[in-house]
Design a protein that fits this description.
Radius of gyration: 37 Å
Order of helices and strands: HHHEEEHHHHEEHH
Number of helices: 9
Number of domains: 1
Distance between the termini: 50 Å
Shape: elongated
Structural class: alpha+beta
Number of strands: 5
Helix content: 55-70%
CATH architecture: Up-down Bundle
Length: 475
């Protein structure tokens, strides 16, 4: 045969590619499951109606420069994010491995062999050296779509990993915001307790003088001192909690606890209104739902791959190169050698392996389907819960504000009565304790409303888009 080996290989490869084009792909094509969704959220109230339009830096709606700085530091240095990004890189690498199956594998295997023949078999003995410079080719013709299903599954695994990265990103961002508001809420409580403590200490001094003058009983002084110690204990607990939250923020931003110090500042952030949108829009905005669907699509592709294993596997193999025992003719035309031909692997008996593999793929699909539906239902539930929290906490904040105003006026009047000798000291102490408790509760409700707003942002997707892809850092 008077054909150049390279040209022949190229022609056969071209034929193989043409044969692959009309090949069928066995197994079911993915169809998104139907998920019932309400026309609107049941707990949705007027202020939260409308379509949300959140940017990736959604925390800017709180208009707090310190929060912005902490969020930027977390996005840049959080270690959970780095780990999630590395998982995306691993998934992309595995996808590249799977997609390599679309291309022929070509390798060079040069060799040098020296051998001696036996005197007892073909005397006289002979020692010679042989040289070979072959190129070997192997290519599976994807007639039944096995490679395509494998590639589809790997690509969906990459998308799943990217969506999981977005889930980690949103969780980190939400944790930073909520910890920050918790810290500022504790700053507010500390300021209230400090102010009350100064008042109570001043009262201890006054009551002490009155006791010495015989104007009031010693029990009044003991009650005043008890109030000071109780408030001091509350302040110490608030300070303890604040330090721990500061430590948490340090770790969230990729620092050791000793590297972050946030000056105290009372909470002044106004609770912003974030529209929740519609339940039907929710599924396209949440990365955890997207991740569950990518897992489902991958499981569906695995069924096709398992079915393709029942069919014959056609592989084209070939080699071409030079082989000689004369070192001077290693690359001469006379030393050329080549071979090429298809091979067919027909699964006749596998001991039930193929059936078990297909059944396992089907059950993994059912598991993924249940997981997808669960993630959708949880998305609806989380959003409804948070809308309920926001609605009721807004009402609680208004009621608490009225309670603070009433308690403040009561404390003022009782203090006037006490100074006039019309009211015993324990009533003044009760009025002041009630006022402090009401003020602390108001600060806690404000903090809870801000935390719920952060939770709502996360529940409706936090500015995430399916087009967003994590960027791997160049090494």
């Amino acid at each position: 045969m008077n054909l150049n080996a390279t040209a022949l290989t190229a022609r056969l490869l071209g034929v193989a590619l043409l044969l692959s084009v009309p090949a069928c792909t066995v197994g079911p094509d993915y169809v998104r499951p139907e998920i019932p969704a309400s026309a609107a959220f049941r707990e949705l109230t007027g202020p939260y109606k409308g379509s949300p339009s959140l940017a990736a830096n959604w925390w800017s709606v709180f208009q707090d420069g310190e929060l912005n700085g902490l969020e930027a530091a977390a996005v840049k240095a959080n270690l959970d994010l780095r780990a999630a990004l590395a998982r995306v890189g691993q998934a992309r690498a595995l996808s590249d491995i799977a997609n390599a199956g679309f291309w022929p594998a070509l390798s060079a295997n040069p060799s040098l062999t020296r051998n001696r023949s036996s005197d007892t078999i073909a005397p006289p003995s002979r020692t010679q050296t042989s040289y070979a410079v072959p190129l070997e080719l192997s290519y599976e013709l994807d007639v039944w779509g096995r490679v395509r299903r494998l590639s589809e599954s790997a690509d969906e695994a990459t998308k799943f990993s990217a969506s999981e990265f977005a889930v980690v990103l949103q969780t980190v961002e939400a944790n930073v915001a909520q910890n920050y508001f918790n810290l500022r809420g504790l700053d507010t409580q500390a300021a209230m307790l400090t102010k009350s403590l100064e008042l109570y200490q001043h009262q201890v001094e006054l009551v002490s003088k009155q006791v010495k003058a015989g104007l009031v009983p010693k029990t009044d002084l003991l009650q005043a001192m008890t109030q000071v110690e109780a408030t001091t204990g509350q302040l110490s607990e608030v300070q303890r909690q604040r330090i721990n939250i500061e430590h948490a923020l340090a770790v969230l931003t990729g620092r050791t606890p000793s590297e972050l110090s946030i000056p105290a500042k009372p909470l002044t952030t106004v609770v912003p209104l974030v529209p929740a949108g519609l339940p039907s829009e929710l599924l396209g905005r949440r990365p955890d739902v997207a991740a569950a669907e990518h897992q489902l699509i991958a499981a569906n592709a695995d069924i096709g791959q398992a079915k393709a294993n029942y069919y014959p596997r056609l592989t084209l193999t070939g080699s071409a190169g030079f082989s000689t025992i004369d070192a001077s003719k290693v690359v001469s035309w006379e030393s050329r050698v080549w071979s090429i031909g298809p091979s067919l692997n027909i699964p006749l008996f596998q001991g039930g392996k193929l059936d078990a593999s297909l059944e396992g793929a089907k059950q993994r699909y059912e598991e993924s389907l249940a997981g997808y539906r669960t993630s959708v239902l949880n998305a609806f539930r989380e959003t409804e819960d948070i809308l309920n929290d926001l609605s009721n906490r807004a009402g609680a904040a208004e009621s608490q504000a009225r309670m603070v105003a009433s308690a403040r006026e009561t404390a003022r009047l009782v203090e006037m009565q006490y100074r006039s000798g019309l009211t015993p000291y324990y009533q003044l102490m009760d009025a002041q304790r009630t006022l402090l408790s009401a003020e602390l509760a108001a600060a806690q409700i404000q903090n809870l409303r801000l935390n719920s707003t952060v939770s709502l942002v996360k529940a409706i997707g936090g500015g995430w888009s399916a087009d967003d892809q994590p960027k791997l850092e160049a090494k």
